[in-house]
């Protein structure tokens, strides 16, 4: 029988088909056995970090609590500065000696001032006294919100998570850009005339 083709040799490797996971583990075992460090896509690192307990640092409390139980916080926004005092009470909110609705005429500003109190479920349970100066209504509103949030955090440190989740403890660092010489304003130049 001259036309017979030789049969391919059957080996153990050809009969066993490895899945991609088995092939990966086999190559990793070979790499560790040879002493060469293995390159991974972070699968083993992710499982190691999940098993360890993540220790969160203690939050920095920027407000103060005096001996009478009154919490104080300072907030700034643009050129406005707000000094806030909070104590347990019936829910009075006074800004520069006037009520909230009298001092802030825009509904959006009033809602922003009440937002940290509502997020921490202290609205109507604490008295808030605010002295604010500088800037305009938007800057003063932002300063009051930050001051209230810092004072609430000093009043009860357990409220930090709710205040941080609502981003009430973040200071908005945007300020007015200074005027440059040779320009009309910060970036606006004088009118150019060719002739």
TrEMBL record:
Domain of life: Bacteria
Pfam assignment, any one: Ribosomal_S9
Record's keyword annotation contains Ribonucleoprotein: yes
Compositional bias segments (type: Low complexity): 16-34
GO molecular function terms listed in the Swiss-Prot or TrEMBL record: RNA binding; structural constituent of ribosome
Compositional bias annotation for Basic and acidic residues: 54-69
SUPFAM superfamilies in the record: Ribosomal protein S5 domain 2-like
Keywords: Ribonucleoprotein, Ribosomal protein
Annotated segments matching region Disordered: 1-76
A GO CC term attached to the entry: cytosolic small ribosomal subunit
Entry's family note: Belongs to the universal ribosomal protein uS9 family.
Record's protein name: Small ribosomal subunit protein uS9
Organism of provenance: Gimesia panareensis
Name of the gene encoding the protein in the UniProt record: rpsI
């Amino acid at each position: 029988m001259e036309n017979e083709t030789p049969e391919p040799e059957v080996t153990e490797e050809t009969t066993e088909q490895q899945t991609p996971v088995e092939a990966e583990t086999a190559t990793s075992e070979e790499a560790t056995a040879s002493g060469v460090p293995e390159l991974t896509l972070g699968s083993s690192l992710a499982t190691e970090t999940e098993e360890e307990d993540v220790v969160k640092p203690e939050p920095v409390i920027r407000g103060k609590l005096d001996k009478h139980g009154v919490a104080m916080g300072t907030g700034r926004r643009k050129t406005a500065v707000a000094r806030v005092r909070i104590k347990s009470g019936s829910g009075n909110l006074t800004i520069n000696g006037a009520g909230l609705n009298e001092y802030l005429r825009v509904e959006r500003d009033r809602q922003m001032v009440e937002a940290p109190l509502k997020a921490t479920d202290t609205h109507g349970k604490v008295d808030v006294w605010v002295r604010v100066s500088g800037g305009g209504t938007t800057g003063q509103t932002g300063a009051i919100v930050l001051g209230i949030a810092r004072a609430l955090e000093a009043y009860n440190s357990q409220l930090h998570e709710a205040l941080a989740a609502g981003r009430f403890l973040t200071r908005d660092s945007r300020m007015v850009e200074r005027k440059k010489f040779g320009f009309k304003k910060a970036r606006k130049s004088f009118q150019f005339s060719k002739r």
